[in-house]
Backbone:
């Protein structure tokens, strides 16, 4: 029995003691000292409602009370939201341009869609290729993107084509974002694509090259884990617009090479046979390029731009769907450009043979080539093809931007400078076409200076890319070593980690066999339930 208070002082002391007791009982769990998760897991009730909610990060228990005091690190969603937001804004501007809500100086770049593509569409619907149209110079699978606006029958042809081009653009971004989140990779490649495509202006959506680029990007990113899928996509891309066949240049030797090439040959042969049997004139594109001249935007065209100021009697005409130089010595310059292309691919073949002779792609080789080599080789091959060609159309820049983006998905990629040069060349191309295209056609001083700048950036990007590819392969690929022997940077029989690849985790330490016992620990302030942790004897 409790003794009743005798006076007012005792009554006040009893009231204060009762308040302290009640305050201690009402104190939330967060007032006690929190234990690390590993120790708290040892005392959490198995299957308990509060314990399971705390482990899931719910609002009950200690985690819920401390939520307002803890700063949560940014998750992967926040890192992905920024490129997606910038992509949405820039692509909205591109759509406004192609729908002619916002205009740019110079010729209308959407004329190819509303006139040429739609004319091909009407002919292809009859079951034949447009053989009577000299502007049709594409492989048989190019009929698919031309016919693709039929998938959106509620829109007119040009509007449907622009929407599908935007979807292909979004596909490239999704592939690069997915690749950038993998271990040993980065989101720099996605940012290159987000920034690079709009630098070309409305031409990016007014040609079907963005669809081809999506196929090429998917093929390269699938090469490491799914070589057969990559080979099939490369072959399909080559039947869309030839150049994706160059992606095969960097496939590492061994089983992946055989699987990739077999899949490419099987897919290409099946599509060609189907097109030849179903639609007449599938191979007319093979001879369509024979009589072409030198396009006014190509590297060799700079000779005629300067020669016009010294009395060269040539003309600038719309020929085979592009603006070209026609006149004396044009054939000579075109043949020199073709010889330069052959020499460039001769260098690429030499690199390939040299790399294979030094066991490129063989993980047993001393300092085997890094993961970035297939990407870098594809980038270099397409740069060589584009720069030395007698035709450099503005949409070709999309190919280079896409491949540069794939290269920069890997951490430690050495193609940063070539990628920057390609982005600068893409921005210059927008000024050259369509903004100041009249100056280029007139061969005046601003037009020549702008064209020389753009082509000079392409030449610089090509030289730097090829040099880094050659030096990287020479430095990392050596003669094969015997199994079980040690190598620099790696233990016996284990190759060193590749550039851009996260090294394998170390083996876990053997757990201690010493018995453990629970040790009682009170909270820091001496209140609250006892805490336990396992300490070794």
Residues:
């Amino acid at each position: 029995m409790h003794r009743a208070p005798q006076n007012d002082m005792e009554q006040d002391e009893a009231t204060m003691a009762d308040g302290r007791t009640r305050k201690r009982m009402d104190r939330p769990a967060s007032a006690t000292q929190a234990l690390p998760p590993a120790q708290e897991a040892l005392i959490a009730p198995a299957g308990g409602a509060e314990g399971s909610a705390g482990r899931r990060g719910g609002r009950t228990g200690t985690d819920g009370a401390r939520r307002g005091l803890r700063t949560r690190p940014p998750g992967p969603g926040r890192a992905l939201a920024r490129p997606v937001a910038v992509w949405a804004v820039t692509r909205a501007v591109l759509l406004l341009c192609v729908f002619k809500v916002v205009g740019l100086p110079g010729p209308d770049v959407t004329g190819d869609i509303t006139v040429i593509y739609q004319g091909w569409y009407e002919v292809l619907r009859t079951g034949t290729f447009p053989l009577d149209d000299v502007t049709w110079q594409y492989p048989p699978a190019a009929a698919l993107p031309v016919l693709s606006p039929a998938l959106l029958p509620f829109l007119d042809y040009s509007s449907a084509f622009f929407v599908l081009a935007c979807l292909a653009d979004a596909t490239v971004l999704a592939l690069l974002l997915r690749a950038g989140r993998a271990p040993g990779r980065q989101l720099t490649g996605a940012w290159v694509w987000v920034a690079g495509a709009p630098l070309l202006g409305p031409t990016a959506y007014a040609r079907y090259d963005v669809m081809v680029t999506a196929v090429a990007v998917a093929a390269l990113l699938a090469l490491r884990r799914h070589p057969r899928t990559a080979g099939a996509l490369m072959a399909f891309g080559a039947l869309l617009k030839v150049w994706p066949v160059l992606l095969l240049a960097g496939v590492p030797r061994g089983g992946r090479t055989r699987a990739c090439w077999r899949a490419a040959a099987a897919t290409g042969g099946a599509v060609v046979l189907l097109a030849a049997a179903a639609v007449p004139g599938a191979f007319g594109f093979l001879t369509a390029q024979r009589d072409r001249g030198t396009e006014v935007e190509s590297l060799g065209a700079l000779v005629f731009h300067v020669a016009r100021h010294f009395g060269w009697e040539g003309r600038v005409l719309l020929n085979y769907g592009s603006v070209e130089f026609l006149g004396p010595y044009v054939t000579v310059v075109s043949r020199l450009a073709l010889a330069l292309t052959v020499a460039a691919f001769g260098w690429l073949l030499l690199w390939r043979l040299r790399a294979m002779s030094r066991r490129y792609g063989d993980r047993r080789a001393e300092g085997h080539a890094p993961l970035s080599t297939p990407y870098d080789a594809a980038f270099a091959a397409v740069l060589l093809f584009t720069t030395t060609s007698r035709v450099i159309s503005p949409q070709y820049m999309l190919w280079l931007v896409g491949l540069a983006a794939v290269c920069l998905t890997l951490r430690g990629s050495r193609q940063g400078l070539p990628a920057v040069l390609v982005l600068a060349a893409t921005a210059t191309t927008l000024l050259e076409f369509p903004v100041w295209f009249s100056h280029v056609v007139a061969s005046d001083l601003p037009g020549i200076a702008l064209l020389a700048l753009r082509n000079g950036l392409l030449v610089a990007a090509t030289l730097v890319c090829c040099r880094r590819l050659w030096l990287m392969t020479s430095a990392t690929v050596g003669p094969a070593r015997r199994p079980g022997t040690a190598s620099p940077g790696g233990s016996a029989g284990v190759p060193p980690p590749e550039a851009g690849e996260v090294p394998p985790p170390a083996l876990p330490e053997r757990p201690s066999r010493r018995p453990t016992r629970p040790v009682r620990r009170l909270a820091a302030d001496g209140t609250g339930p006892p805490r336990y942790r396992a300490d070794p004897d």
Q: What stands out?
A: Confidence is low (pLDDT under 50) at residues 27-71, 363-368, 477-501, 530-537. The chain has 20 helices and five strands.
